[in-house]
């Protein structure tokens, strides 16, 4: 479970940073970048919080 | 009534070793401090400080060099000044100071300290409010706004203040846990927001970055009505923007939980992510927003909803430990009050302060003043801990003799401030000479007090 959560957290961080680079390179629209960042944010807070709880238990 | 009593009992149970040395079993590893410092210094106010430097016409080279030198000096202060005394005493600043300065002077210091902490937390609540107000099309405060500019602003600030206070009442553990979870994501939001707006600044390739940095971001030309800043402004601000925490010793309250003194170096996460990467990012966002300084809108422009949420969270994660410290400070003044009650009072003061945008728009000056006012007490603690024994004088003399008010401490505090304010320099530069004056005054008058005015003491020393 921890591995899955860790992977989800990692993907969420990639969703946060990578789209902005694609915007800067002209490969992605700003709107798509903002949507992906929002998804990344939700996934991060769910997975990271769950990961911390799992680690404690 | 029974429910009220039950909540009260639960809140009272949130006892955190405030008034006695931290027990060994309560110490934390260095990872926790990396998280706390990162969370605390990747704050909503970083969204303001970058734009304020831009508005003061800093050049790109002055900005980068000033940040590198100033932040390094700040980390060294945490590691070599604050942490060693914190891990030896294991006390909060306030309870340690009580032994040096006496209870009466500690009360005075605590009032000043708590009020300044409240204003600082207030600026963070203001920052969060600019993001919360976005969906309501709230009129944003501008660089020149000192008073609230709309009813919506006041309502949003009151709601944010209530939420932050409620979280602070829940205690240190929960605050640091939330801070640790949020901070890695927040750093990336700052960076992503800045990268995403680069096309708006006509950056076509990596090779354009330095040219655009000089011509469109840190242009060297101040906004109308703003003074010109140089390398020295940036360096001293980066070094002293947390003066009260490191040289002022307020972070004894945090670092007393550290297993080793070198955990003070954990402050580097806060300095080089928060006060370097985040300030650069917010400067870029400000330039892309044609000079707008309201944190919520510029973060939204860079990163959309995630940007606005990051402003709220960044404000919360910083306001909470600051409010926690204010609660500790007020607790000295109200020794019979429980933690939740003093934090509630601190939260109320903070929220009222946050209603005034001046606290956010004049943040650079306020932060410098806040550090300056509290710095001499840190100098006294250092002098008492390291220098008095070497001169054959007794440490913590007020506690030893049962003195209510240590006059050498009072003279050192007021004397250092008087000398600092008498110097003809800007507020960013006068803390450094003030520290040496405070140390010198405290040593000289402690010597007089212990060697000449208490002759019976000399025999026992």
Overall description:
The complex is a heterodimer of chains A (57) and B (461). Chain A contains two helices and no strands. With 57 residues, chain A is mostly helical. The model of chain A has no long low-confidence stretch (mean pLDDT 91). Chain B has 461 residues and is mostly helical. Chain B has a single domain, classed as Hydantoin permease. Chain B has helices at 2-12, 30-41, 46-55, 60-89, 93-101, 103-132, 151-169, 172-196, 209-217, 231-240, 252-255, 267-288, 295-333, 339-354, 358-361, 363-387, 397-401, 407-422, 431-452, 455-460. The longest helix of chain B has 39 residues, at 295-333. The radius of gyration of chain B is 22 Å and the shape is globular.
Q: What key attributes describe this structure?
A:
heterodimer, A: 57 residues, mainly alpha, B: 461 residues, Hydantoin permease, 20 helices, 70% helix, 0% strand, globular, disordered N terminus
Write the SSE topology.
The complex is a heterodimer of chains A (57) and B (461).
Chain A: H1 2-24, H2 30-56
Helix pairs in contact in A: 1-2
Chain B: H1 2-12, H2 30-41, H3 46-55, H4 60-89, H5 93-101, H6 103-132, H7 151-169, H8 172-196, H9 209-217, H10 231-240, H11 252-255, H12 267-288, H13 295-333, H14 339-354, H15 358-361, H16 363-387, H17 397-401, H18 407-422, H19 431-452, H20 455-460
Helix pairs in contact in B: 2-8, 2-12, 3-12, 4-10, 4-12, 5-6, 6-7, 6-13, 6-14, 6-16, 7-13, 7-14, 8-12, 8-13, 12-13, 13-14, 16-18, 16-19, 18-19
